[in-house]
UniProtKB/TrEMBL annotation:
Full protein name: SET domain-containing protein
Source species: Capronia epimyces CBS 606.96
Highest taxon of the lineage: Eukaryota
Cross-referenced Pfam families: SET
PANTHER family reported in the protein's UniProt record: SET DOMAIN-CONTAINING PROTEIN 5 (PTHR47332:SF4)
InterPro entries assigned: SET_dom, SET_dom_sf, SET_domain_protein
Region called Disordered, residue ranges: 1-23
Domain SET span(s) in chain numbering: 16-156
Gene3D superfamilies noted in UniProt: SET domain
Amino acid sequence: MSQKHPYRSLHVPNDAPFKLKPSPGKGWGAFATRRIEQGAMILKEKPLFVLRKPHQEITEADIRAAFDRLGPSEKRQFLLLRDNGSSPFSNMERLCAENSFTLSTNSPGHGLFLLHSRFNHSCVPNSKVPTTGDEVIVSYATRDIDADEEITFCYNTDFECRTRHERHQALRFTCDCKACLTGTPFQQVSDMRRRLLRGLQYLTVGVDLDGRRQDSTLIIDSKLKKAAQDSSIPLSSRLFYYLLTMCLLAEEGLLDDFMVERYKPAIETAVALFRTESNVVIVRHVMAQKSWLGKCGMATRL
Ligand SMILES: C[S@@+](CC[C@H](N)C(=O)[O-])C[C@H]1O[C@@H](n2cnc3c(N)ncnc32)[C@H](O)[C@@H]1O
């Protein structure tokens, strides 16, 4: 049956390192056709169309109007889309929600991407679309991907700080990646690591994931919570929190090059703020350790 499947007619570039095929339990997915090295570009894609409205305001009529403006070949490609690879979509809004990316351009925008939307989700993915600030989106391998391995990315940007239960509530489907498969030692530790990551982010940024101060039990110690909110966490603790964050992300399989780039400025700023000669020597010694675990361990000892 899958030989006649509409996705067989989706235009995948000849040089793309993947093909589309059924992914058991997940509809269809994208699978590597050759080994893809960490850091390599996987796909650069233009949207079929962009809707310049906040998500909640997009209507069936907006999508129909965008469809009507497409050329004949683009219309044919659009009409190939299936709800998780099976039946036609019951309405255009759902079709759009399942196949679009929020663009982080100046004005609100959602782009409909035919191929990137074929990639399934994983909470421990092997690829990333690092920015959607441009209308053209690009995915990269965040680790080496073997031929025939499924290519996945994480659908949400704050999942490294969310437990399995929270992630599944947001996704509205049950992911079975190694951070989600229950009863495994990795999964149990994964939830603890992600909860810790959320706490560490609160301690370093002073707000929770939604950008607000929180009054629940994320940080129980009221003095510590106040210090985080007032940005008065001592410099040595702040640096340690960053190093611990990097260790936890590495253990969780999420410390890709983009993540390192994200934390690098904050870590470098913290390092540069140590002034007394003895502290400078200690920090230099800590940062000279090769791995994040090594840096973290040395920081604890010193
Ligand atoms: C953007 S589509 C991905 C491509 C889709 N599988 C297809 O065949 O067209 C997103 C949908 O794929 C399914 N999906 C994606 N990742 C999944 C996962 N890790 N586990 C189960 N289903 C998944 C869900 O139904 C989700 O709503």
